[in-house]
Amino acid sequence: MRVVNSIVSRIGKNPISIPNGVKCNLLPDGCLQVQGKLGKLSFSVPVGLDVILSTDSISIKPNVLPKNVKMMWGTSRSLICNMVKGVNDGFVKCLEINGVGYKSSVSSGNLILSLGYSHDINYKIPDGIKIVCKKPTLLEVSGIDYQLVGQVASKIRSFRKPEPYKGKGIKYSDEVIFRKEGKKK
Questions:
Q1: If phi over 0 gives left and psi between -120 and 50 gives alpha, with beta otherwise, what is residue 109?
Q2: Is domain 16-88 annotated with CATH 3.30.70.660?
Q3: Global pTM?
């Protein structure tokens, strides 16, 4: 019979390596600040977890063992790892627009989308996000906050989701749209 250790998290036990040029500070109020060449992010460490900073890595250990602390252990490690990667490299999501007459442009902090509706859609770009139109049908959403980049890309995609018959709409560049066959005569 195999004995399972109840306090092991497969993700949480792995240390996070800190690349050159990234500074991490643990504030007295339990907030971790990560600063790099692209910006600064902070994370409020949940109660029950200890963050151990060394010169080249960050480790997270639980100090009590209730169920909610064990659940937050791996989640907190992933969020901190995304912060370290974001301030050093940043995150990018690419979107493709497919459809006749569908296009996009960026002007004065607004994304303007023409998606076949009777009016154009004006989307105000949030702070911390940069949207670049490489072509009128190719968008690039970038930023240092992984959650915010994904949320903005998802919101833009929701304005006209791709449909399965002709594939018209906004889709992620690596997304595969399963096509349906139209009706037959």
A1: left
A2: no
A3: 0.87
